[in-house]
Amino acid sequence: MTDTPTGQIVRPATPTPQGRDGPSREALVFERIEAFRRRKPRLPDEFVTLAHGAGGKSSAALLDAVFMPAFWNDTLAARTDAATIELPSGERLAFTTDSYVVNPVRFPGGSVGDLAVNGTVNDLAMMGADPLGLSAAFVLEEGFPIESLRGIVADMAAAAAAAGVDIVTGDTKVVDHGAADGIYITTAGVGTIPAGRRLDTRSVQPGDAVIVSGTLADHGIAVMLARGDLALEADIDSDTASLHGLVGLLLDEVPDTRWMRDATRGGLGTVANELAQTTDLTVVLREAELPVRPAVAGACELLGIDPLYVANEGKFVAVVPADRADLAVETLRTHPLGRDAAHIGEIRSEPPGIVVLVTAFGGTRIIDMLVGDPLPRIC
Q1: pLDDT digits (tens, 9 = 90+) for 331-378
Q2: What is the secondary structure of 317-377 as a DSSP string?
Q3: Closest to 56 measured CA to CA, from 219, 273, 212, 261
Q4: Main-chain phi, psi angles of 343, to 5 degrees
Q5: What is the pTM of this model?
Q6: How confident is the model at residue 20 (pLDDT cuts 50, 70, 90)?
Q7: How confident is the model at residue 14, as a pLDDT?
Q8: Whose CA is closest to 286, among 298, 272, 301?
Q9: Domains of the chain, start order
Q10: What is the CA radius of gyration of the chain?
Q11: Within 13 Å, how many C-alpha atoms sit on residue 55's CB side?
């Protein structure tokens, strides 16, 4: 298989072998890659950069050009926070995994430990799943203080207990001094999805309401300030928290909720773009309704960062029927993690595939997907 100058795939001269039951695995992989390459642009970068981990355009390009063609399957193609797996019994499981490389490992309001647990529980919750168990794998750098490790593990245990889930398996590796940055944690989780519950972009319709469960950009700014590289001081804590209980409350009161996503890397702006592109609909956000704490807004302004693109670790975005928006917000506000919930926008049919922000002055501007990485290593 070779590439022409235009990037078009040319079939090998040698015919692809056929098995007794149809095309060989090699042929199926080739067809899968060819179909994907026809639909997605190639990755222009020659080397991995920090921007590829930011959750924006560069991350999407890396995913589309490297991982998706190799691993393509219908489950992966859904691009959800967690995969849904149909069991022979008819039950549905949600399964997710994530790695945490935040720097520093401890910051106002949390640490890499509770972040690792909460992030995985939240990915399950976004599929409407009840968590069953988590795994935890550690990569430790030689010389990392045992006392620091004890503290991080204690944070994980406390977060798991708060979420009502156990860490049931794991692994530990140690690398040479200088080969890592102290500690990296990978967690995976599995949960069950109650019968009849489906949260899917295919359910989203024009006229639906967009809500957010609380204030934006708290986590990213808290971590950025904790690094001490900037001459800024502000009383800002990370919002890291398990959203399982809050999500359950919403789904009990508004069972026809269409879709949910926690706005982590790339923030609300990137999540809204992923929704718009997947549904080929328009996401309209109202700037005046976006909940941002004054201290966070001030820090973002000084840093020249739009809070729409800053990561959250304890907030989610949901789409609900328009006539259920008030109930959804009122329900979320009864929970401590949802007291700042807000109705921030709506879904429209035109123009398709974009995010529009209605500014506080009544104008409009396009919100594109995050470009670059203004806040690296925040989760």
Answers
A1: 999 999 999 999 999 999 989 999 999 998 889 999 988 776 667 788
A2: EEEE-GGGHHHHHHHHTTSGGGTT-EEEEEEESSSTT-EEEE-TTS-EEE-PPP-S-SS-S
A3: 273
A4: -90, 110
A5: 0.85
A6: very low
A7: 35
A8: 272
A9: 24-77 (no CATH), 83-193 (3.30.1330.10), 201-366 (3.90.650.10)
A10: 22
A11: 27
